[in-house]
Amino acid sequence: MSWERPGDKKAPTLRLRLAMVLSGMLVLTAATAQVPEITIDPGNLPPEILERVIDAIDSIAEMADDVDGGEGLRLRRRARDVTVTTLNTEGYFSPVVNLDAAVDEIGRTWDITINPGPRTVVHDLDLGFDGAIGQPRFEQNRERLRQDWLLQEGKPFRNAEWESSKSTLVTQASATYFPIARLTQTAAEINADEAQGNLIVKLDSGPSVSLGEIRVKGLKRVPQSVIERYIRYERGQPYERRRMVDWQQDLQASPFFTSVKVDIARDDILPKQEQEELPEATGALDPAVAEQAETLAREGYTGPEEVTLPIEVEVVESRPRRMSVSLGIDDEVGPRIETVYRQNIVAGFPVELETGLRLDPKRKLGYADIHLIPHENGYRDSFGVLAQDVDIEGVHTKRMAVGAIRRKTFPPAFGSRVEYEVRYGTQLARESTEIDRVESYNMNSLIGTADLTRRDVNDKFDPREGHVLGVGAGLGTELGGSNRFGRLTARGQYWWSPRTDYVLTTRLELGRVWTRNIDRVPDDFSFRTGGASTVRGYSYLGLGREVGGAIRGDLSMIVASLEGTKYFSDILGGALFIDTGNVSSSFGKGRWSTGVGGGIRVKTPAGPLQVDLAYGLRTKDIRLHFALGVAF
Length: 632
Hints:
This protein has helices at residues 18-22, 47-61, 69-89, 139-148, 159-173, 224-230, 241-253, 272-275, and strands spanning 26-28, 37-41, 96-103, 108-115, 121-130, 182-191, 196-204, 208-217, 257-264, 293-297, 306-317, 321-330, 334-343, 352-359, 363-371, 380-392, 395-410, 419-435, 439-457, 466-479, 484-499, 502-515, 545-547, 550-552, 556-567, 572-584, 593-604, 607-616, 621-628. By secondary structure, it is mostly beta strands. It folds into four domains: 18-115, membrane protein fhac (Ubiquitin-like (UB roll), Roll), CATH 3.10.20.310; 120-318, membrane protein fhac (Ubiquitin-like (UB roll)), CATH 3.10.20; 320-373; 374-628, membrane protein fhac: a member of the omp85/tpsb transporter family (Porin), CATH 2.40.160.50. The strands form five sheets. Strands 12-13-14-15-16-17-18-19-20-21-22-25-26-27-28-29 form a 16-stranded antiparallel beta sheet, with no helix packed on it. It has a four-stranded mixed beta sheet with strand order 1-2-4-3, with helices on one face. Helix 2 (47-61) runs antiparallel to helix 3. It is globular and about 95 Å long. 28% of the residues are buried.
């Protein structure tokens, strides 16, 4: 039986597949006469391990083209050696590997026979702890680290899992309380004759660290009070690496700094050269010394078990003024141009002025906002003015508005990932509305809103597991008129990963407006839907109340979605989805609009880029949609 890699005429072999393994004999044939034909008898190797052996032999066989006899002998020895080494990394420390070379009418051949011998399993695990983590109050920490250790007793010894277990142990231990945790002893004692391995691991946590004062370097124009507004904590609070990362990201995202580093003052407890040391990575164990101990030993921490350390912040300030111009294209409205001007110190005050202009075929928008730095209680305020001209689905609206927003993010409690965000807003607006071939009118309104969001996800910008829940309320009145209106909304999204390369997500949105006259409600207070982040397969805001040739907002909305994504690499994936929605005067009325389709997902620093092709079952149209980021 002969096999070639498709499309690769110089490839000597093809990767093993499970159907070949079950036959007990694999034949890998070269595509040229110079490369040997390779036959492998795998013995009783599991398929996944045999595939690694095939990969290793491939890398050697590819060098066999155009070599002399002496070099060919050396390559055959390397092929045998790399087979043995690969088996060692998977726990086979007494394999017998024979490679017989010959020449027949086709050309050179390598016949490789593998007798892997018994696979070494972990017989005993001695996982010990030194330092402050040994205190009774950290018993749960120690137990969690023991449970998360990969190479438990009875499992096959794999070199990759041995290295991963050690790395994970240090990473988890140093995440809270113990920032300088490190391994002081590791030993893998392998008895190849009995196929048993005894593992010895000692973790020295160092001291339990609490947070002290803030030290800042790099400030020139920006006052230190800005740093203290973003980094909010109580003196004596335990160290938590995630908080350090969040503070660094918040400062980095602010308009005041281009570079930020936030960490504890490690120099106060550990010399710099020791901070730079990493546990030594160990390769595969040599079967010639398999009964000897593979060890790492170093001195442990000898200082006090509890310390309070300053938070060190090092910054590079942003330019005081910035202006940007961008061109783009949107699946909803077509080409777009946008310009934004930002100034981060205004009249000597640490506030951000942001003003911009956005133009596309259906929307014209100009705005100017002032963003204040966070209050001591964590709230952030902003206020501004807006002018816009929007003509979508037969509804032409011109609006002038002034408004203010107050918001606050409540960071996760110690040891949790649950985050809450509250947002309050008020807006005074004058709106001129023209409905194609129906009517036109002016309206002044005053609206107040409140929103609460709860996030419990593994990653804000690339969620794979967890959920987001949100509720919102709004009250408004028509100034100079008799109409009043109120609104409630609810939304939720859930992510689940049955495997590392699969993500399933489901989304549900509900909304209801109460008013005496829906025609005298501001356009963005009632409900329309359709488009990239709602019901794909339909035009942007194309689902709503039909009035003449226009689509207006209505009193109730339901939108639901189910999507599955398969990732082919770390950044690229493909998705299938079904969306459905209903906008009507009440939840029990109206027509449901459903869209089905598929698309691609590309991970970017700003979140996943989504490009979808969707078919609307009601309209029987196919539409292209794309969006960037997570819509919550």
